[in-house]
Amino acid sequence: MAAQLLNGLTEGMMLFLIASGLTLIFGITRIVNFAHGSLYMLGAFLAYHLMPMLGGSTVASFASAVLLSAILVGLLGLVFEVLILRRIYGADDLLQLIITLALVLILRDVVKAIWGANDISVPMPASLSGALQIGGTFLPLFQIVAFAVGLVVITLMVSIMRFTRAGVLLRAATDDRGMVALLGINQAWIFSSVFAVGCFLAGLAGALAAPFGNVNYLLDTNIIVMAFVVVVIGGLGSLSGALIAALSVGMVKGLGVIYFPRLSTVLIFLIMAAVLVIRSLGRGAISK
Amino acid sequence: MSFEHVQSRWLFAAVSLGLAVAMLMLGPGIALLATEVAIMALFASSLGFLINYGGMVSFGHAAYFGLGAYGFALAAAKLGLPLWLAVVLGPLTAALGAVLFGALCVRLTHIYFAMLTLACSEIVFTVLFQAYDYTGGDNGLTNFMAPRFGLSPQIYAALTVAIVALCIAFLARIVRSPLGLAIQAVGEEPHRAAALGFSPRLVQLVACVIAGTLAGIAGTMYSVFQGNAFPDYAGVGITIDALVMVVIGGVKGFYGGVFGAIIYVLLKTFVSRAFTHWELVIGLILIAVVLIFPTGIAGLLQKLGLSRTARPSGEQHP
Amino acid sequence: MKLKRGGLLLATLLAVGVTTGPVQAQDPIRIGYAADMSGACGSLVDGATKAFRLGVEELNAAGGLLGRKIEVIERDTKTKPDEGAKEVRDLIVNSKVELITGVCSSAVLLAETAVSAELKVPFYSAIGNSQTATIEKGQPYFWQTNPNVLMESIAVAEYVAANKAWKKIAPLAYDYEWGHTSVKAFSEHLKKLRPDIEILPMVPVKLGETNMTSYITAVLAQKPDLVYGAIFGGGLVNLVKQGKAFGFFQQTSLVTLTTVDFLQTMGGELPEAGLHGFARAPFTSLLDNPKVKSFVQSYKARHGKDPDDWAVLAYDGLMFYAEVVKAAKSTKADDVVKALPTVKYEGLRGSMTVRGLDGQMSAPSFVGAVIKDAAYPFSIMKGATRVDASKTLTPEDFIKSARAAAK
Q1: What is the C-alpha separation between C330 and C324, in angstroms, rounded?
Q2: ipTM for the predicted complex
Q3: Interchain pair C175, A264: CB under 8 A
Q4: Fewest Cβ atoms closer than 10 Å to its Cβ: which of A107, A288, B207, C99?
């Protein structure tokens, strides 16, 4: 059981990386970005493509491939926001949803056209492929690294939010978008940069996880669902909520495999439904 | 289109009857496609009703489509009930599901409402997918009846169009009734509606059950049409299709679901036959449609003066 | 079928793909290739489609069948049963195809075989398999040219039973019908062969799971000698890669579905030892057949890589159909069905026939250790055992009683 919990914790941090960009984007811009999983997938494919160019499967080339892939995905997000999403702010929320859905379809086919339909395996850098042995259980080095990256991301994000002027503005924008506009801040700039950073995080998660599993065009749907569940359980827009939710989901999943194995497929939905229903019980008749 | 006008009512009846009769004269291939369009039109309209009037965006509407299909198919295939009874049980199952899930979901609003509906539909999907001793699992239920009750494609198309027209007329009636006005009031301003003495959750629950039952009718008709049932019918893919239909049809008008279904079913069918990379093409078309016609087809028709609004009170809330 | 009677505005949109007129003797033979090109099956269908196209070209270059050219109409079922049934119906009603094939997913297969039975058009599956489609829902117009899950499970059980070092087996399987049926058939046969073996409770795996680590730690905690994995595709890649990080192959062994596409994906990353596989048509086990050599050559010349199992199966299925048509001297459904069990086919996988009762081809399975080989950039099932259908084919009595029970 300890092994399941420990592993769940590291798996949870990878879930947090997946979810962090989604919750950031929603918190500030209120955009429900269905393409988040697709951007994750794109990050993974880019890492696969870039690693050989950057020197093969060493830690250095892997790290630079991850960073470069994330930047490229972030840039794509920026372009997408400026060229398309920006035109429909203020229109019905559903339009944004359909636009991001369209991006899902487009990215899936583009990825298929460039890299083919077959599964792809990104080689794990040799020095990351070992494991620590704690008692009788193994803890893969890669998961420790991913955990550290997750910690860095959450620390950076929280510090920026807390201690910088940009962070103050972002927090203000989360609470009251109109007020920020009244302060004379260019809201369009805030939205574009937040969207780009959110996409960067999606690309980062995808590229980072690439050597640890299968890469194919079906990643988009598998990932987006997990991302949404974590974000909703944590409370939309809340970074610390997403972190707690991700770690808890990871650990419950680990225990679930042992104690209620037949539920593994619906488990995350059951958790989400339970959290939502319990949360709703504590409210008045209507809540916004 | 307003149903207060006797004239419009007759016009709707005449158009529906005309369409149904026209089905009898089509070739079998086109009759099959027209049937699919009609069923999806009903499904999308039921979701459109929930979104446009009830103010509730559901990510799990396929649950009721799937329950409608499986309520029918399980009754016919596993319980061996006569088909007429099974046909009634399909939408009833969906209605029951809507009461249960609706009661849970209406406690929440906005994206949280949407995500809880998604959870409900994923739970339905997983039960259908995994409890294969009862549901057939991913193998679905097949060979338990002749598709379309063995009717010719043309006759089943006519029957479908007639039933769909009746259901949509019923929806239009609801929208105009005091209940419909209450649903709209709660959908737009829940606090104000509560102050007026409505119980917002009860009103929303009723709207969910109406939409769920109509989606269930669509699901049952689809199962009869295919002569089978598969867990995919409760899958998130069908919900997303319906959301796209509602949006490209028009998020403000009453007939958005119908227009959206016609366009999207034909688009998906023919683009996927014509292009290997059909998802790319459809994605690009969707972006173009949303940017060029942000109010959807219904909005476009309204602008051209071809259709009057069915949502007089909603205009000030874009 | 004419559209103008409908008088609808839509008519122009709908007119695509409509053909008319009776079939002439010299008309091409139209084949409907409805494949799961997008969606969950897309990665498996890729090689199959390439090989199918190659086979059609070869047949046409040799003058077609019965002097008629073959014309293929391709459709994407999107790996959805209702889309599959819809496309197949349209292919038959509007495009007048005389044969349907291409399917991969068992769910889509079952939806399509119902349409084939209803409209009486021959339908075969070369890469998808479903024992339900041949047994409980068997119908005269359907045949299946690859082994089904019952046959494969028996082949694996034979292989596992022969290794006396394996005494404790942990099944790890996708949590749906295929996974459970695989484990059940495997366990039952293994228990018959080796009553001493302990089979642990199955660990069910969520379909589409991207992170297998919690399953891996749970299975390893049971300390099995061998893990039987009813896992395929992307999930298997996850299992092996993440398993390696946990020292999986130092602690236990894995036997699972290792088709050539999976081996190609993994390249040099598979463990040196501890991985055993079963497969339906690995070309590396078939190369002493000259037909396979020339097929591999032309496939590789065109696509720059070796054909995977799905490609071999798709090509073999098509060539079998060609032989049936030649024997029947007709493409008419009833003539084809009548000729079906009479053809002794010499194909890529050797000599095979289709049984009349259930339309199941006597297809072999291959089981063996997966090891590195200098001749290929990926590990292969070198020296895999070929398990012939005579050992695995479901007995006729069983089929008859299963059908009676289903009624």
Answers
A1: 9
A2: 0.91
A3: yes
A4: A288
Can you give the pLDDT at residue A13? 93
Whether A6 and A137 have beta carbons less than 8 Å apart is answered as yes
C107 to chain B: closest CA residue: B139
C228 and C328 assigned to the same domain: no
Is the model's pLDDT at A181 over the cut of 80?
no
What residues make up the domain containing C309? 28-147+289-363
Instruction: For C142, list phi and psi in degrees, rounded to 5.
Output: -115, 135
In a domain, C191, yes or no: yes
pLDDT tens, position by position, A98-133:
999 999 999 999 999 999 999 999 999 988 988 888
B84 exposed, middle or buried (CB, 10 Å; 0-12, 13-18, 19+)?
exposed
CATH number for the domain including A266? 1.10.3470
Considering its fold, how many domains does chain C have in total? 2
Q: A57 by DSSP, 3-state: which? A: coil
* Co-location of C328 and C376 in the same domain: no
Q: Which residue has the tokens 């406690």?
A: B107
CA C241 – CA C229 distance, rounded (Å): 14
**Do C39 and C126 have their domain in common?**
yes
pLDDT tens digits along C249-271: 999 999 999 999 999 999 999 99
> Could you tell me which chain A residue has the CA closest to the CA of B58?
A94
Is residue C170 assigned to a domain? Answer: yes
Residues B84-96, mean pLDDT to the nearest whole number: 97
Beta pairing partners, C76:
C35
Instruction: Give the C-alpha separation, B262 to A173, whole Å.
Output: 40
The DSSP symbol for B53 reads I
Domain count within chain A: 1
Do B280 and A105 make contact, defined as CB atoms within 8 angstroms? yes
CA distance C174 to chain A (A): 10
Which parts of A54-164 fold into alpha helices (H)? 59-83, 93-115, 141-163
Beta-bridged to residue C124, according to DSSP, are C143
Q: If pLDDT is split at 50, 70 and 90, which confidence band does A264 have?
A: confident
Q: Is residue C240 a part of any domain in this protein?
A: yes
Kindly state whether C272 is in contact with chain A, defined as any CB-CB distance less than 8 angstroms: no
Question: What domains can you pick out in chain B, each with its CATH number?
Answer: 6-314 (1.10.3470)
Please, which residues 135-164 of chain B have a Cβ atom closer than 8 Å to chain C? 137-140, 142-143, 146-147
Same domain (yes/no): C332, C383 = no
Distance between CA atoms of C256 and C244, rounded to whole angstroms? 15
Q: Which residue of B has its CA nearest to C133?
A: B139
Phi, psi for B142 (deg, rounded to 5): -135, 170
pLDDT confidence tier of residue C17, bands split at 50, 70 and 90 = very low
Residue A155, in any domain of the structure: yes
Cβ neighbours of C163 (radius 10 Å): 14
Helix axes A93-115, A36-53, angle to 10 degrees: 30
Interface contact B295, partner C, CB < 8 A: no
- Find the residue in A nearest to C232 (Cα): A119
pTM of this prediction? Answer: 0.92
The verdict on C297 and C343 lying in the same domain is: yes
Q: Is residue C356 part of a domain?
A: yes
The residues with which C31 forms a beta bridge, in sequence order, are C72, C99
Q: What is the CATH number of the domain that holds C47?
A: 3.40.50.2300
Q: C107-138: b or e for each residue (b if 16 or more CB lie within 10 Å)? A: bbbbbbbbbbbbbebbbbbbbbbbbbbbbbbb
Instruction: Name the band, by pLDDT with cuts 50, 70 and 90, for residue B303.
Output: confident
Considering only CA atoms, which of B301, B146, B299, B168 is closest in space to residue B226?
B146
Q: How far is C366 from chain B (nearest CA, A)?
A: 26
B148: left (phi over 0), alpha (psi -120 to 50) or beta: left
Q: Which member of A8, A10, A219 has the closest CB to residue C210?
A: A219
Name the residue range of residue A62's domain.
Answer: 2-281
Average pLDDT over residues B208-236: 97
Pairing status of strand C275-279 against strand C365-369: antiparallel
